[in-house]
Amino acid sequence: MKANINFQNNFKKISEMEGENVSFEILEYEALNGSKDVESAVMLSFMNDANIKLKQAKITLKGGSVKLEAGALSFLKGNIDIDSNMGGILGLGKKFLASKVSGETVFKPRYKGNGEIFLEPSFGHYALIFLENEEIVVDDGLFYACEDSVEVGAYMQKNLSAAFGNEGLFQTKLTGKGIVLLEIPVPESEIIKYTLNNETLKVDGNFALLRSKGVDFTVEKSSKSLLSSATSGEGFLNVFRGSGEVWVAPTQYVYNKLKFSGLSRMTNPGGSSNTKV
Fold first, then answer.
1. Which residue from 62, 65, 110, 266 could staple onto 85, CB 3.0 to 4.6 Å apart?
2. How far apart are alpha carbons 177 and 168 in whole angstroms?
3. What angle do CA 180, 254, 146 make, to 5 degrees?
4. Are 172 and 102 in contact (CB under 8 A)?
5. Within the chain, where are the H helices?
6. Burial of 155 (C-beta count, 10 Å sphere; 0-12/13-18/19+)
7. Over the stretch 74-88, which tens digit does the pLDDT of each residue have?
């Protein structure tokens, strides 16, 4: 006897973006009910009650091609070719250099053809972005997949002071036109997306996830004098200046404190993320 199972019945689509010959979807499992031991069942029950949902990214190719973070593939169906996208000896050398300075993996396999690609499921969060012949800089580890028309490289900070802001001298640069999938640390609904118009944004901590090309990043004292900085309790601030977009995730600090310090620290936080431990 043959059973007809609709795989999609287990999913709810929470986000999607359509390109010319490729589409990206973020799917969410309604519930996980397959535990076969008590310990896992208790954990899953707690997660369901806490509304922690398993998510999975699906990419549909219609003659198009995409680049994935190495190891991101879960499974695929259809007539899809895979190559390592090394680009010869020179290209391989550039990729090794970019990986060393930005923290990204060397190889980002290219998938081309017709069919469906499912990425590894995760309890994390995702964001879909469409680049219109532009450049953005994102935190290391956020890149997950993109259309092949988008270039993934390393961005060197213009100001050496950035080394003191926990961002490092190099970050990941995404350039071109097409869809980008990012794996973000908090739900997209908790991200504040500022559009700066020759303005300045100062952040006490490293929870700015993304900025567009027209925004410069530096690390500066919160006050003009060292004494004022010390008495204000802030010290150094991450400063974003210029015109463009900046994504800020202030709740990331809350989740980190809950994970490492528990509720007691959150009822009396006593200071900001950049000045006290």
1. 110
2. 26
3. 5
4. yes
5. 38-49, 88-102, 226-232, 251-261, 263-267
6. buried
7. 999 999 999 876 554
